[in-house]
Write a structure and sequence with these properties.
The protein is mostly helical and about 150 residues long. It has 9 helices and no strands.
């Protein structure tokens, strides 16, 4: 079934959301690869095919396919992910699943140990932004670039 193109229907809303995306990808001190890693993990949790496809492709520019494939089980393969990446992925899961986790004190303390206060806020904005994109991409079935 064809779905609406949310960016065409609500261009001001799209512009606002893309403004946040521009902020997190260009105006923070977070490493670009870390941002895309978080984008991918959040999108996997939310089941947004378009975003999973796009951010996997972004990561393939700088990251091995083996590491990308293991993002869903990052906690089982510690040797592939840095301490900061693991902290970011854990915080991404905690914030994305906030209705279940309630952003626990333990998770907050763990994330705070690896990020400055400003970087932790920026990381959380990154997670929130991708959750917003997923909540548009999945329901409106944005297309994927992947082909047979």
């Amino acid at each position: 079934m064809a779905r609406l193109n949310w960016q065409e229907i609500a261009p001001d809303g799209a512009k606002a959301l893309f403004g946040i995306h521009h902020y997190v990808t260009k105006k923070t001190n977070l490493p670009e690869e870390l941002v895309h890693l978080v984008f991918l993990r959040v999108s996997q949790i939310n089941g947004c095919a378009h975003c999973i496809d796009m951010h996997s492709r972004d990561l393939r520019k700088t990251m091995s396919i083996d590491k990308i494939a293991l993002v869903p089980v990052w906690n089982e393969v510690h040797h592939l992910f840095s301490d900061q990446e693991r902290a970011a992925l854990a915080w991404a899961e905690e914030v994305t699943l906030v209705s279940e986790t309630h952003a626990s004190d333990e998770a907050y303390a763990a994330a705070s140990a690896h990020f400055t206060p400003k970087d932790l806020v920026d990381l959380t904005i990154t997670i929130a932004a991708m959750n917003a994109f997923n909540r548009l991409g999945a329901p409106f079935r944005l297309p994927v670039a992947a082909a047979l």
